[in-house]
Design a protein that fits this description.
Quinone Oxidoreductase, Chain A, domain 1; Rossmann fold; six-stranded parallel β-sheet
Length: 325
């Protein structure tokens, strides 16, 4: 079968499409569910792994791919799944292939109103958003949140899940094109990254926001802290901007604000059944249409390297998806 593989840690353009053996029902860790993959979501961990810069560092050659959607080929009894089921799934690596084998904890029912491309855009980003907003952020209905990098995959997912919980959302973007993506995802307001601190203060009547979800880091971090209202909290999700910022804790003391880490993968992978619980929380939002993943570019599996290169150059809008079937 075809698979998008890293054979050397030289970045996106070194990704190769190779023929490898299909997985079997008896995996390394025991019986597993086999999925015929229809679509693969392109994710930031894929980009980092292509360079050897992610915390998970498999030895080359290895197959990329975190998020997938497809149809179950076979499933052991007692897993709750059966051949023919439409599913989305999430694993650490190995998804960018024609057939994937996974345990039941990593697989979720895909509602009929969502396409395979949308299904491949869901797991990591939307489960991350749910974790950030509820498990770590304790979002309450009626609160106002600020989303940095609002036009990206995690950003748009955060907007939609926050709207599902009844929050007001302000998105921070770097262009009018990205502002349209964020608004289409459901953002109530958008502001340009240049001067966003003052714009947010104006939009909130000088009060600030209850929560900032920050996937960017870098130079905007301090101004993000300054947009918080009293007892506001800033959720650190990632560093797409490259630089890892530092916090002067006297600012937290003076303003009664929090900075909280929010590493979904580390938390979820250690708790069997947690991702399924999160998915059940999100299913009503999928059914109502609040969750409607904005798909950006759609490429063939052979274009995995190109898709990752565009992500590296910060050209990605919404979620990039690869078609497999």
């Amino acid at each position: 079968m075809r698979a998008a593989q890293v054979t050397r840690l030289d970045g996106p353009l070194a990704v190769e499409i190779n023929e490898i053996d299909e997985p079997t029902e008896n995996g390394i860790f025991g019986p597993q569910i086999l999925i015929e993959v229809h679509a693969v979501g392109v994710s930031f961990p894929d980009l980092l792994m292509s360079k050897g810069e992610y915390q998970l560092k498999p030895d080359p050659p290895f197959t990329l791919g975190v998020d997938i959607a497809g149809v179950i080929r076979s499933a052991p009894e007692g897993t709750g799944f059966a051949a023919g089921d439409r599913v989305a799934a999430c694993g650490g690596v190995g998804g960018a292939a024609e057939v994937v084998g996974l345990g039941a904890d990593n697989i979720f029912p895909l509602p009929d109103n969502l396409s395979f491309e949308q299904g491949a855009a869901l797991p990591m980003n939307y489960l991350t958003a749910q974790f950030v907003l509820q498990e770590r952020g304790h979002l309450r209905e009626g609160e106002t949140i600020l989303v940095n990098g609002a036009a990206g995959g995690v950003g748009t997912a955060t907007i939609q899940v926050a709207k599902g919980y009844g929050a007001k959302v302000i998105g921070v973007v770097s262009s009018e094109e990205k502002a349209e993506i964020a608004k289409k995802a459901g953002a109530d307001e958008t502001v340009m990254v240049e001067g966003f601190r003052d714009a947010v203060k104006e939009l909130t009547g000088g009060q600030g926001v209850d929560m900032v979800v920050d996937v960017v880091g870098g130079d905007t971090f301090t101004d993000s802290l300054r947009t918080l209202a009293t007892q506001g909290r800033l959720l650190v999700v990632g560093f797409a901007g490259g630089a890892i910022p530092e916090v002067k804790v006297n600012r937290l003391l003076l303003d009664n604000t929090d900075v909280r880490g929010a590493a979904w993968g580390e938390y979820a992978m250690r708790r069997p059944g947690y991702m399924a619980q999160q998915w059940r929380e999100l299913l009503p939002m999928m059914a109502s249409g609040v969750i409607d993943p904005p798909i950006g570019a759609v490429y063939d599996l052979e274009d995995m390297g190109r898709a990752l290169q565009e992500m590296d150059e910060r050209k990605t809008l919404g979620k990039t998806v690869l078609r497999v079937r």
